[in-house]
Amino acid sequence: MKNRLEIDKGIFCWGCESTAHTFSCSILKSDGRILSDVKSIYTPPPGSGIHPREASRHHIEVAPKVVKQSLIQAGLNMKEVDAIAFSAGPGLGPCLRVGATVSRALALYYDKPLVPVNHAIGHIELAIMLTGAKDPVVLLVSGGHTIITAFSRGRWRVFGETLDLTVGQLLDQFGREIGFSSPSGQRIEELAKKSSKYISLPYTVKGNDVSFSGILTTAKKLFKEGKDLDSLCFSIQETAFAMLAEVTERALAFTEKKEVLLAGGVAANKRLQEMLMEVSKRHDAKFFVVPKEYSGDCGAQIAWTGLLAHSANISVDIEKSFVKQSWRLDKVDVKWRD
Amino acid sequence: MERLIRKGAEADIYLGEWFRKEAILKIRKPKPYRQSELDVEIRKKRTLHEASFLMNARKAGVSTPLVYFIDQNKAEIVMQYIKGVRLKEMISDRKMDNIDALCSEVGRCIARLHKNNIIHGDLTTSNFLVVKNRLVFIDFGLAFFSQRLEDMAVDLHLMRGVLQSAHIEVADEAFNKILKGYAEIAGMNMIKDLVRKIKEIERRGRYARVE
Question: Chain A residue closest to B120 (CA)?
């Protein structure tokens, strides 16, 4: 009888995201409903990037408020939550430790299982749940990731990735050069819309991998030489996104899968979406893109993946719940997916 | 009449005829999502590279299809049709008995290319055709000349990535066999340098932790 009740009630997971500039807490129900998703984002001064110490200080300051708000919005008490999930990596050490400390304390105090979640898999799982994709080739693009991955034999396998900068870093670092504060992808996209003049930039595809450092160096140099900023933004997008489209197309042709999923913060870019849609069409694949409000870092990605992991009996002892700054997604055994 | 036999990521592959001989027509079609200047440049460059490196590789002692005709402006190549099975399918279908021997041969061929400063640029199991026990290398669109250890190491690093993503069950074994074959041609010292360099490249990657 108890089981029956539990099914009706559903399972609730509270999750905390704290890998980089975003501190966010969220509660999800096992039917996929996002009951709350509260976030506070650290913004560095214009022209500079995220300083891990400053970001972690921001997280410490906002944590109590964000935690509380995530419960109020969901209309739940922490006692009613079944599991506590936290982003255990990859990310910036000082930032990760804030979320981990908060989550450990809550798990200990309320005697709940503590579930470590890989941030990259968090992006993918939430995007899959929200879009209804089943077995996609995923292009994950953000400040921390640029990876083409697909699921096979228990893990997310990497079919291609960046050899140096992520596409988010490319946009942010160029943005910094022109005086924007990170993340600057959205402002670069706006400038890019004003031009259609293509300036040649290094197009570097090595097999299934890409390299963006050449684009950054050249674009910075051309900017200093006084080249038109709108055209530079346009050309950075055109070159970098065409490279991403090409390697995604390669993974699609190689794996012969029939779905493409675009996830991560840069997924919000309309031009990138357009290119990937064309790629998908050419290979008769369905194209999915994560909804804009959940493309960036958020607690919901951790809470949802935590819920899936919890359902597969994954948890970690408090004293062993270390954060892992370099936790690659292809090192995670995904027991809840087959 | 040409018949589409494969829609690759980059090009469409047709089976047709060339002077009454079966032949492959490889067309790098325009990608509508790409800026047209960039698109034309990429397709032209890769078509030319492919044609010349198919020949360079043969000079280095690696079997490749013969090139019959090139149309740079249309980004088309007509080449010899080789009836073979891709190594990708050989591994997936678990025709395991001669996989070891084939992987050693892959290693020997890569070493021959590198010895002649040819970097393939796209070493994947779908770019090796197996004909009986012979290997034929294809798809040289990303090939280039280089003497740098870094470029040779990236070549092998990509190969390893493909094995780990698409053929995880045999990945380590297959890669070791490839290195062994490579060493037969290039020598142990070269392999040591390469393995060191591959680790360095992996360490540069995102979130990599290399022991």
Answer: A207
